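Why do we care about 3D structure at all? Because function follows from shape, and shape follows, mostly, from sequence. That is the central idea of this module. The next example makes it concrete: a single protein chain, its amino acid sequence, and then its structure expressed as tokens.
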Amino acid sequence: MAKLTVKDLTKIYEGKLSFQALKEVNFTIEDGEFAAVMGPSGSGKTTLLNVLSTIDQPTSGEVILGESHPHHLAKNELALFRRRELGFVFQDFNLLNTLTVKENMVLGLTLDGRKVREMNEKAGELAEKLGISRILNKRTYEISGGQAQRTAIARAIIHKPQLLLADEPTGNLDSKSARDVLDILAKINREIHTTMMMVTHDPLAASYCSRVMFMKDGVLVSEARKGNSQEKFYQEIIQEISRMEKTNAVM
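And the structure:
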């Protein structure tokens, strides 16, 4: 778990027509905070996530996680950083169909050469917490979408990453499964104090976070913080999205 600091982050895609996807973006996600990023299509959310996850390099600016500067690392060091310090949860789960649920969960630990006993213990503990103990030996094509996303979450946190990045984690789930997954993410954040950032278009998903940052045209334009009421926070998010849509319509 660690503090994430983003300083003057800029990303320009060069070509016949260059495109500036991020424009001097600045923000901090505190150690143990659960934050969301929202914005319309083309606002820069995906680019931001790609840069934070080290999939993409910034044109300028800085990303600092704890005491690490990942974009300054050599290629081999960066691959190790991504595997050990970051956790990823994707909309389409990204599980390997040839492996069981348990084998998917411990894949990163296997690559790190951890002992089988340690991996079994960690997998068992997490499976119990996430309610997937009964399906550990099933293949991923034998389980539901909600179970697949729980498996993906387990894989993402089993190595205790400093930062968990979630990209539309409820996008392929029905409403009940989506709520279950959001409850799990909130529980992980609350109990394990994992620093988390979620990109989402869903106001309900965003309302599970402690803070929502709104993006437009590559810039963070506003933010909202949760008080004591999730329902009130949800309404604030809806209002801010509506305000941004009206601004777009006027422009």
